[in-house]
Amino acid sequence: MAKVIMVQGTMSDAGKSLLVAGLCRIFKQDGYRAAPFKSQNMALNSFVTDEGLEMGRAQVMQAMAAGITPSVLMNPILLKPTNDTGSQVIVNGRVLGNMSARDYFSYKKKLVPDILKAYHELEKQADIIVVEGAGSPAEINLKANDIVNMGLAKLLDAPVLLVGDIDRGGVFAQLYGTVMLLEPEEKERIKGLVINKFRGDRSILDSGVAMLQEKCGIPVAGVVPFMELSLEDEDGLGVEQKQKETGLVDLAVIRFPRISNFTDFHVFEQLPGVSVRYAGRVEELKNPDMILLPGSKNTMGDLLWMRRNGLEAAIKKRAGRVPVWGICGGFQMLGKRICDPDNMENGGEIRGMELLPEETVLKPQKVRTQVRGRFGNLEGVFARLSGMELSGYEIHMGETQGTGNEALPSVVIGMAAQEKEDGAYLNNVYGSYVHGIFDEGNIAVRIIEILAGRKGVCWSAEYESDYATFRESQYDRLAQGLREHMDMEFVYGLL
């Protein structure tokens, strides 16, 4: 049996995901086989495993920190919101169906066997499992059927670290209030408190830490500083905080209400002099050097949202003069028409943005696959990408086909006799189903070089390694920060 430790938070975005990743990295560095686990994840950022199964990207990021291959065992339940009151429910990497919040709340206890089976399978592969909770364990209206916080801690007999976010203020109230709202047996499971995202002089906190320990009867295991790291966000919370300043090269990502897999653009964020702004209104779009349409969990709904708020017209006005690139749902929107005969989203059909001569039919079967390939013989702004190798994955419910001969495929997937064409480009408008299309090698660097050259500015990446190497350096920085500011001897004692 693997040793286990669980990280819970006082709220969403308290830093649980990064703390789990950092602990996984430390355990790996210390010679242990570590693995992350989150029984239920609600996020629109997802990933496809080697087996073609879908899981949350947060656990993918944590698996990379642990130096292991991501597996759906690490995230047996994934909820992908389709509207304000419902989600697509994915169990063991496959779609179970769409459920309202009320229906899922009454159903989810039936998934406990799936959770435990995944966990026990993961135990066979790991020395230490670092479990992540979700939201807060003090949601007293949800505790009865909990399968992700204290309910899971009880099932796994896991000691818990409780993390609070001082950057938002009120961290002592967060931690003390959470502890006080728990039942006695739940309080017993919390073995250490962690104050996260601290800025300033640590000694100023000393008296507060002492009082917190006295009032809760639980030691503070660490005061972790705010670390400037370039690692993926778990969900849309981070999008709201993305930089608004315009860089030497400026990229605008359309912030759909149901935006998904915005991690596709993370590779650009760590390049110097590059701004990645998220625009949800016309006035936020400004005059970027490239417009990016990300994935969407409700393609038709988000296209109508753009049409109503004027963003569609603003993008079409700039298209051609400014390159436009759509991925997955964003690619589907760029076409002439989207049809939904099986009511997968809104039903019926709607006119697309008409920037590419393509038509999409939404279908019940979800495509989930990892891909390797290369850019096709592109023309226009990004002709220099032609032939560059790429890798990524597809997650979509729909098929897109050309309606004429004007457009050419943007991507060729596979090798030799197994090749297939994907996406399309025409008049500096590009689209593809491939998530992660910019991550391989120096594709992102090449794109920024091209955009900088178009506007006549001098841009140098000063970036000698590829994105994967850069990401590894960020995990090491995270681990070093935790070693310096957490009591790792105490943590190992809990194990």
What does this structure look like?
- β27 (424-426) and β28 (429-432) form a beta hairpin.
- α1 packs parallel to α2 (57-66) and α1 crosses α15.
- The chain has 16 helices and 28 strands.
- It is globular.
- It is an alpha/beta fold.
What is the overall shape? globular
Q: What integer is the average pLDDT?
A: 92
| Count of alpha and pi helical runs | 16
Q: What's the quaternary structure here?
A: single chain
Query: What structural class do the secondary elements suggest?
Result: alpha/beta
| Sequence stretches where pLDDT stays below 50 over 5 or more residues | none
**Tally of strands:** 28
Specify the helix fraction band. 25-40%
Largest sheet: 6 strands, parallel
C-alpha Rg (nearest Å): 23 Å
The strand line-up of the biggest sheet is: 2-9-1-10-11-12
Write the layout of secondary structure elements.
Layout: E1 3-9, H1 16-29, E2 34-37, E3 40-42, E4 46-48, E5 54-56, H2 57-66, E6 77-83, E7 86-91, E8 94-100, H3 101-107, H4 112-123, E9 128-132, H5 150-156, E10 160-165, H6 171-180, H7 184-189, E11 190-198, H8 206-216, E12 220-225, E13 249-254, E14 259-260, H9 266-269, E15 274-279, H10 282-285, E16 290-293, E17 295-296, H11 299-309, H12 311-318, E18 324-327, H13 329-334, E19 337-340, E20 348-351, E21 358-361, E22 367-375, E23 389-396, E24 399-402, E25 411-413, E26 420-422, E27 424-426, E28 429-432, H14 443-454, H15 467-485, H16 488-494
Parallel strand pairs: 1-9, 1-10, 2-9, 3-6, 10-11, 11-12, 13-15, 13-16, 16-18, 18-28, 19-21
Antiparallel strand pairs: 4-5, 6-7, 7-8, 14-17, 19-20, 21-24, 22-23, 22-25, 25-26, 27-28
